Amino acid sequence: MNQPTRAEQFVRNLIFDIERYARGMWRFRWRAVVAIWIVGVLGLVWVYSLPSTYRASARVYVDTENAIRPLLQGIAAPADVMSEVTVVTREMVSRPNLADVARNTGLQHRAKTQDEFEQLLVSLGNRIGVSGTRENIYSISYADIDRQMAVSVVDSLVTTFVQKSLGGSKTESNQAQQFLREQIAEYERRLTDAENKLADFKRKNVAVMPGKGGDYFSRLQAARTELSATEAMLKVANERRQELNRQIEGEEPTFGIMSANSESPTPARDSSSPKIRELEAQLEDLRLRYTDKHPRIGQLIETIETLKKQQQDQQNLVHADDQNSPPRLPAYQQLDLNPVYQNMRILLTNTEVEIASLRTQRAQQRAAIDELQRLVDTVPQVEAELVRLNRDYEVVKANHDQMLRQLESALIGEDAVASIDDIQFRVIDPPFASTKPVGPQRKLLVIGTLFVALGVGIALMLLSNIVDPVFFSGRSVTAVTGLPVLGTVSRSMTPEQIDSSRKQRFGVALALSTFIFTVSAIAAYADDLAAVIRQLVELTIL
Amino acid sequence: MLFDGKPPAGADISASDHDLPNNASQDEHDKVAPIYVESANTSDVPDLEPYLSSIAKEESQDISLMPRRSLPTVEIDEKKMGAYGLRAQGSDIEAIERQFRRIKRPIINSAFGQHSGDTRNSNIVMVVSPLAGSGKTFCSFNLAMSIARERDIGVLMVDADVLRPSLSRGLGAEKCVGLVDYLHDDSIHLENIVLSNKSHNLLVIPAGKPNAEATELLASRRMRDFVAVIASQYSDCAIIFDTPPLLATNEAHVLAQHAGQLVFVIEAGVTSHDCVHQAVSLLDDRKPINAILNKTPNLLYGETYHDRYRYEYEPPDEET
């Protein structure tokens, strides 16, 4: 015979070990049977002591377009049904909502402390089921050991859901409107402030407000130009006066009268005296600015003509006088009677008046320029400030206007929503719980108990064997004790012993099979049995 | 021949006892290898059972034979043995005989083999076990029977399990004078307590009358001397002791000290590791201790390969 291969050897050893273990465990069969029965009975008692849970459910139709959409604003894209379901669910199991439901249904009485209440809410949230079956149809369910309570809870949920989904959008829009109104009031205040500020500012800086003359720098320039014009005129007027004075006081005998006896003999006049030349220059100057229609020009022309004539006449007179007249009073002493001289004196007065006014004008203009220059720093600032105030005002105004528009649109929208309230929500199946419980799964639990009990029995046998091992082979004897083994002697049983052993085996098998059969029977009729037991218990206790 | 009827020392021997049979009867005796121990005074032996066989009668038929004292005999009734649980049942007999045939070999070697001189009392084989009911008596009896078939070796069985002398009972010798009596009463001699079974080449010392102090007697000096005497007197016998359970009595292990070798019987599926350890710790480990695993069930892949190989005498078929 061949040596067994390693695999065969392994298998044999394995089977050998298993057999030894089985035989060793067999010693504890009766205690295992007892344990199995005890565990089984306890398990069954426990299973049947579990209260049945009932599920209540309701189906509702919700027009998510109008009910959910407002809730979703800013949260999700509109056309996403799943997120709508999620929103609904989340709404429903939100803590305030659950607290409301707990209070409405009396569920809160199950909790005695705050902590228990919290836990109650948590478990409530976990056991509420919301599903979107088809489009816009939602199913709300809840399971509880108390059938009535389950129905109440679902009912409460449905009601709350209705209120929330409809009233929710309303209150939200109300809130939005409230917000807008407040903002509008605020902005109106700001607008008023801005206006006031602007007005104050304008008032305070009226002088430097940009007027018709354009902005500051052009004004300054214009003022300067005017000033120089004025100064030019003043200069001209001054020279004229000087000239006139000279003529009047005889420094320049333009008339020719003082030629013979005067200390300062003057030669014969030229055809055009400097005075006339001066006047003519003046005339030209004036003509640059004014037309001949100007009274002063007319005056000047007259004056020049008169002077020219007089000059001519005087020359003639001088010539005549020089020839044949005795020495008389200097001409100037007769000046009072001279019409030219009177004219001259008028002119002089005019000129002096002119000078005076020009001086005044110049002073004024200088002052104005000084003022302007003085405001060099402030005017740009002021203008910038003005720009800013204006801008602020514009901004406030713009916001204010926008909010007014928003408020108007919200009000319009609300009206639209309110008008289609009645078709948004419908209850398809009212809350209902079947009298048949949905849980616990007693069949499974009973079968589980069966296996657990058997497992306990086997474990017990195994452990007992491990704790108190025996020998089944010479090999193990030597291994454990170190004693060499002469050999093994087979067991030889008397017929009675064989019989007894057979009976034992039968007894164990019977006990086990009875157990399994009983448990299976209980499993098969688990729920009916539960109802029967419940009734019995109620009858005996009550 | 080992057993040629040397009278033991210290025994009163009457003259007639010296008359050994002639060659013819010697041959006869040789065939059956009888053992005769002279008994000096048969009247001193109380309560002889009517299990006396008629060997004397047979001998008296042979005129050439001088009448001589013979040992009281004991019968081995197979059925009775079976009933007492000392013999195998039915179909197991063959297997068990095979097993003991295997088991005895090392024992014999230790007792009479090359190195047997190293051990004191090497032919004293004590069968021990931790607890009762392990099959000690069964093993000792079957071992004895197996060794008794040896041509060159005789067997003396001593039932030292004085509290439950199932061996003695199985042989029907529970009322005979035995070991306890011998230990208790100095006047009783060795030859008074030995019984013989010619057909199986077996000598037996029964347990004797039960006694409250029986187990203490086992630990006495007289016991020690007794063992020494029989070891030398029956130095060509294998002397097999059936002992009380080691853990049940305090004296059993004292008895075991007198052994030349120990055979430790373990009951498969019952004797725990713990028990074995405890019992072994009581024994002197300088002595050779060998184990027998008794009452092993038929395992699928047990150590019974050798059972498949039967190599035995098969009687030839009857030819008509």
Overview of the molecule:
- The complex is a heterodimer of chains A (542) and B (320).
- Chain A is an alpha+beta fold and 542 residues long.
- Chain A contains 17 helices and 5 strands.
- Chain A has a 4-stranded antiparallel sheet with strand order 2-3-1-4.
- In chain A, helix 2 (29-49) runs parallel beside helix 16 and helix 6 (95-105) packs across helix 7.
- The two termini of chain A are 79 Å apart.
- Residues 75-81, 256-270 and 419-423 of chain A have low confidence and may be disordered.
- Chain B is α/β, with parallel strands linked by helices.
- Chain B is 36% helix and 12% strand.
- Chain B contains 14 helices and 7 strands.
- Chain B has helices at 15-18, 23-32, 55-61, 78-83, 92-112, 136-148, 166-171, 179-184, 190-193, 214-218, 221-233, 252-256, 273-282, 305-308, and strands spanning 124-128, 154-159, 195-197, 202-205, 237-242, 261-267, 289-296.
- Chain B has a 7-stranded mixed sheet with strand order 3-4-2-5-1-6-7.
- The termini of chain B are far apart.
- Residues 1-69 of chain B have low confidence and may be disordered.
- Chain A binds chain B through residues 12-13, 15-16, 19-20, 23-24, 27, 468-475, 477-478, 480-481, 483-495, and chain B through 82, 85, 88-89, 92-93, 95-96, 99-100, 102-103, 106-107, 135, 138-139, 142, 263-264, 266, 268-274, 276-277, 280, 289-304.
- Strand 5 (485-490) of chain A pairs parallel with strand 7 of chain B.
